[in-house]
Automatic annotation (TrEMBL):
Reaction it catalyzes: tRNA(Met) + L-methionine + ATP = L-methionyl-tRNA(Met) + AMP + diphosphate
Annotated GO CC locations: cytoplasm
InterPro entries found in the cross-reference section: Met-tRNA-synth_bsu_C (IPR004495), NA-bd_OB-fold (IPR012340), tRNA-bd_dom (IPR002547), Tyrosine-tRNA_ligase_regulator (IPR051270)
One annotated GO biological process: methionyl-tRNA aminoacylation
EC assignment: 6.1.1.10
Protein name as annotated: Methionine--tRNA ligase
Location in the cell: Cytoplasm
Lineage: Bacteria, Bacillati, Bacillota, Clostridia, Lachnospirales
Name of the gene encoding the protein in the UniProt record: metG
Subunit structure: Homodimer.
Length: 115
């Protein structure tokens, strides 16, 4: 995954603008127009968001349903492969370019704020 790294220092006020929450994947399906994207329905508290993520090929879809994930909620919706994404599921890339979802190390209430 190639991204432009931004080493700019942000302020504490910038950090406080991020709405990071614990979400639970309740549905997962392939995006027909994409080789990399999966479409998720993610429950965040009492809300459900549709979020697209480029992690196809790193996980089996059935192992993702029920998994808790870290979600950036307050990002402007984006259209990818003709579908709208209403958030970002956070992941990390290892030295070989494989993606790993960022998940809590124990069960946390869905919708809990991440600090």
């Amino acid at each position: 995954m190639t991204k432009t790294k931004n080493d700019s220092i942000i302020t504490y006020n910038d950090y406080m603008k991020l709405n990071l929450r614990i979400g639970k994947i309740i549905e997962c399906e392939e995006v027909k127009k994409s080789k990399k994207l999966l479409c998720f329905k993610v429950r965040i508290g009492n809300r459900t968001r549709q979020i697209l993520s480029g992690i196809k090929g790193y996980y089996e879809m059935d192992e993702l349903v029920g998994k808790q994930v870290l979600v950036l909620e307050n990002i402007q919706p984006a259209t990818m492969a003709g579908m709208q994404s209403e958030g970002v599921i956070l992941s990390a890339e290892d030295s070989e370019g494989n993606l790993a979802l960022l998940v809590p190390d124990k069960n946390v209430d869905t919708g809990a704020e991440v600090y």
